[in-house]
From TrEMBL:
Stated name of the protein: Phosphoenolpyruvate carboxylase
Keywords from the named record: Carbon dioxide fixation, Lyase, Magnesium
Gene3D superfamilies tied to this protein: Phosphoenolpyruvate/pyruvate domain
InterPro entries: PEP_COase, PEP_COase_bac/pln-type, PEP_COase_Lys_AS, PEPCASE_His_AS, Pyrv/PenolPyrv_kinase-like_dom
GO function term, MF aspect, one: phosphoenolpyruvate carboxylase activity
Biological role: Forms oxaloacetate, a four-carbon dicarboxylic acid source for the tricarboxylic acid cycle.
First-tier enzyme category under EC: lyase
EC number of this enzyme: 4.1.1.31
HAMAP family recorded: PEPcase_type1
Active site residues according to the UniProt entry: 146, 553
Entry's family note: Belongs to the PEPCase type 1 family.
Source organism (scientific name): Shewanella vaxholmensis
Required co-factors: Mg(2+)
Subunit structure, as described in the record: Homotetramer.
Length: 889
């Protein structure tokens, strides 16, 4: 697949164009070898026609559609695969370009820490205050697996190998022979990718998802974390003359993979146990690799008195200690292997690395001895890297969160109280529930009878709580309660943990997800913190999770964003009054419609005082790969998070003016009305949605372990936020990411508030970030393609709704351009705009083909089902469009 100069961008992106062209050429050669010249010529013809069609050439569009609809069954899969893989290779080239030596200054990410330190230490922030804040930063990135990550793990590994080759190619000193070898390796990798099935045969299990998360750490973050901390230390030392502590860990990692059971019946206590064992196994295995290398490095004899005494004056004291650690790690791995295989071997835990101190104490002793003996240079090599990995990952690799719906907990108590003859807990009012819960939390006798035989669902909840009780606090993160809304939701979980023997104070975190829950969040937390028993339990720390996905699905992005902002402001005030430190947990998705977008901007747009050195954020689906999949990219992402949280803490944004608040409140009210007027009140909306998008077909894709719906028989309200967003991104209308916003902004303009909106966009980070995100989704939206889906797939009596939606999209684009005083969308971010343009000639044919395939599959009957070629090609078009759109769900 040849990519010409005219296909791409301006000359400033020459190195990117070169790599895109080279990889596309190799992909084309691969196809020619296995499918012949005629197939490749047809692919090229369709690509060029798609490009001409974008320029308004109606004849080119008609010719392209004729070629697509005439594709024989045996060419459907390779055709979809060709465009799919080119988009993946284009993504790869872009990712690499941001970390390339030849990266253009408009694309490269400048060192955000260096920039921030320069601003801070230029008289704006006291140096000691800055250092104290940096040393105590607590950024927890929570890896989640949802059905947005299309690419299989085996393909991701091959893509990473291609990046390694691109990196090697930048060496100007390579010989012709070495260049030939790299080119050969690239051809081999692309051939391997071409001959690998891109679509999983079966849905991944929760354990598969957890293993995918561990692979991201092993292949990237394990290397990136010490690299980032070394760079951070160097920047700080250059600016302040001080070094950072050896155990500094501004960023840590948690996971929902294997712990998130909200609406996922496949996540059981048994699964969670296996994931915890696998997490620990992965950590032990990676530490063992490091220790083996360190044994080879620390051959010196000189030691301080402590180490000499500990090793009985060994002639190689460092190796003496390390060999012991090495054996304990090997024994730990053997023990965990047996557990993962379903055995429960008897073992003396003191012979294993079972507590963090088992590894930390001897390594710190070695570090101190080296520095005491004048060998700091050696101490600050691999040994320091291991200590910093230990500070970040611990011996459990990832702290596992547990998430469950509030109703599952109350159902446990309802079944128990009925059994005990006390009535039905679910029928009590909030006051009665709290009185009962607090009485039992303070009662020393067990509440659960030993001879009680609960139902299967109740037993599963209790088994999860017993599992939590068995594991150390450092292996676990938070217990998140979905659809929480009342203090009793939190107290119920605390009672279940007490009754199942949990002795460590696990963080129990209410998740406020809907618009009404967000509006009630501060009142709920106020009531909780007014309870003396609960205040004692928190020990001065309160965590609250803000849901972006479901609030946006409930109210639209603009109203949800304002509700999230306002809830955070109120929660900050409530916790400050109570003398409690608040940690906000932001449940963001990858897409704009689910709270996604650039993390740096998102953090800096939070209300002043809401960060305060602490933050938890979900990193989801394909965004984990885009941000952390390559070590250099991961270093950039870690630096962006660290600098953003540091800046939001020490240089917080200004308090919004009252007139801005009033304007935003009016926008929120009008936008939610416009959004719900379509999604809830339009009688034809559900029928239109299911006809105009591949929503039904997405449910058949073997993407994630979790069902697409919370209830099988439910409608739009029961559909998870992810397939809701994913479906609309496939037909390119991107509706959930903008519906309601343009109408509300237009209403503000008609009230004569355009000048006020422009002031807000210029001076208020919260509002400017919202407008920037709107620009991005408007630029990605393709109303003409959405109209084509409608023409081919939607009954004519529903077409009126499509026309209405496209008119609203056009209205939103016009008002945003007026607000930003621009002639085109994303004029201030040319790289992002060109990135979108680059993909369109490759995404468009996939969309047109997808429409044809959807029409075919929907006509199938039990007697004449769609062929296997049609079904697989449809899946590939979905994967390809997702790759092209990037932040799909």
């Amino acid at each position: 697949m040849v990519v010409t100069k005219a296909d791409n961008m301006t000359d400033m992106y020459a190195s990117l164009r070169s790599n895109v062209s080279m990889l596309g050429q190799i992909l084309g050669d691969t196809m020619r070898t296995h499918l012949g010249d005629s197939f490749l010529e047809k692919v090229e013809q369709i690509r060029k026609l798609a490009k001409d069609s974008r320029r308004g050439d109606q004849a080119a569009r008609e010719q392209m559609l004729e070629l697509l609809t005439a594709l024989p069954d045996e060419e459907l899969v390779p055709f979809a695969k060709a465009f799919n893989q080119f988009l993946n290779l284009a993504n790869l080239s872009e990712q690499f370009h941001t970390i390339s030596r030849n990266c253009d200054e408009l694309v490269c990410v400048p060192d955000p820490v260096e920039q921030l330190l320069g601003r801070m230490l230029n008289g704006r922030v006291d140096q000691a205050k800055m250092l104290d804040c940096l040393k105590t930063l607590d950024i927890d990135l929570v890896l989640t697996a949802h059905p947005t990550e299309i690419s299989r793990r085996t393909l991701i590994q091959k893509y990473a190998a291609i990046v390694d080759c691109l990196t090697e190619q930048e060496n100007d000193q390579l010989s012709d022979r070495e260049r030939q070898q790299i080119n050969l390796r690239l051809r081999q990798l692309i051939a391997q990718i071409w001959h690998t099935n891109e679509i999983r045969r079966e849905r991944p299990t929760p354990v598969d998802e957890a293993r995918w998360g561990l692979s991201t750490i092993e292949e990237s973050l394990w290397h990136a974390v010490p690299d980032f901390l070394r760079q951070l230390n160097d920047r700080v030392q250059q600016r302040t003359g001080q070094q950072l502590p050896i155990d500094i860990a501004p960023v840590r990692f948690s996971s929902w993979m294997g712990g998130d059971r909200d609406g996922n019946p496949f996540v059981t206590a048994k699964v969670t146990q296996e994931v915890l064992d696998r997490n620990r196994h992965a950590a032990a295995r990676l530490f063992l690799k490091d220790i083996v290398l360190l044994v080879g490095e620390l051959s010196m004899e000189e030691a301080n008195d402590e180490l000499k005494a500990y090793t009985n004056n060994s002639c190689e004291p460092y190796r003496h200690v390390l060999r012991s650690i090495r054996q304990r790690l090997r024994d730990t791995i053997d023990y965990l292997n047996a557990r993962i295989e379903g055995h429960n071997p008897e073992v003396d835990k003191s012979s294993l690395i079972w507590q963090e101190s088992d590894l930390k104490a001897p390594l710190e002793m070695l570090y101190k001895s080296l520095t005491d003996c004048g060998m700091r240079l050696i101490a600050n090599g691999l040994l320091l890297d291991i200590l910093r990995r230990l500070a970040c990952f611990g011996i459990h690799m990832l702290r596992l969160d547990i998430r469950q719906d509030a109703s599952r907990h109350s159902d446990v108590l309802a079944e128990l109280t009925r059994y005990l003859g006390m009535g039905d807990f679910n029928h009590w009012d909030e006051t009665e529930k709290q009185a009962f819960l607090l009485r039992e939390l303070s009662n020393r006798r067990p509440l659960i009878p030993s001879n009680w035989q609960p139902s299967a669902d109740v037993a599963e909840v209790l088994n999860t709580c017993r599992l939590i009780a068995k594991h150390p606090a450092k292996a676990l993160g938070s217990y998140v309660i979905s659809m929480a809304g009342k203090p009793s939701d939190v107290l119920t979980v605390l009672l279940l943990l007490k009754e199942t023997g949990c002795s460590h104070p696990m963080r129990v975190v209410p998740l406020f997800e809907t618009l009404s829950d967000l509006n009630n969040a501060a009142a709920c937390i106020t009531d909780l913190l007014d309870i003396d028993w609960y205040r004692g339990y928190t020990k001065g720390m309160q965590e609250v999770m803000i849901g972006y996905s479901d609030s946006a699905k409930d109210a639209g992005v603009m109203a949800a964003a304002w509700a999230q902002y306002h809830a955070q402001e109120q929660l900050v005030a409530v916790c400050k009054q109570a003398g409690v430190k608040l940690t906000l947990f932001h449940g963001r998705g990858g897409s704009i419609g689910r709270g996604g977008g650039p993390a740096h901007k998102a953090i800096l747009s939070q209300p002043p005082g809401s960060v305060d050195g602490r933050i938890r954020v979900t990193e989801q689906g394909e965004m984990i790969r885009f941000k952390f999949g390559l070590p250099k990219l991961a270093v950039q992402s870690l630096a962006l998070y660290t600098s953003a949280v540091l800046e939001a803490t020490l240089l917080p944004p200004p308090e919004p003016k009252q007139e801005w608040r009033n304007c935003m409140q009016r926008i929120a009210e009008e936008s939610v009305g416009a959004y719900r007027g379509i999604v809830r009140d339009e009688p034809d909306f559900v029928a239109y949605f299911r006809a105009a998008t591949p929503e039904v077909e997405l449910g058949k894709l073997p993407l994630g372990s979790r069902p697409a719906k919370r209830r099988v028989d439910g409608g739009i309200e029961s559909l998870r936020a992810i397939p809701w967003i994913f479906a609309w991104s496939q037909n390119r209308l991107m509706l959930p990411a903008w519906l309601g916003a343009g109408e509300a902004l237009q209403a503000a303009s008609e009230r004569g508030e355009m000048g006020l909106l422009q002031d807000m966009e210029r001076e208020w980070p919260f509002f400017s970030t919202r407008i920037s995100m709107l620009e991005m989704v408007y630029a990605k939206a393709e109303p003409n393609l959405a109209r084509y889906y409608e023409t081919c797939l939607v009954p004519k009596d529903l077409h009126h709704l499509g026309e209405t939606l496209r008119q609203r999209l056009d209205l939103g684009i016009k008002v945003v351009l007026e607000l930003t005083k621009s002639d085109s969308l994303m004029a201030h971010t040319p790289w992002n705009r060109e990135s979108v343009k680059l993909r369109n000639p490759y995404i468009d044919p996939l969309n047109f083909l997808q429409t044809e395939l959807l029409a075919r599959t929907r006509k199938e009957t039990t007697e004449t089902p769609a062929s296997e070629h049609v079904q697989l090609a449809l899946m590939l078009t979905i994967a390809g469009v997702a790759a092209g759109m990037r932040n799909t769900g």
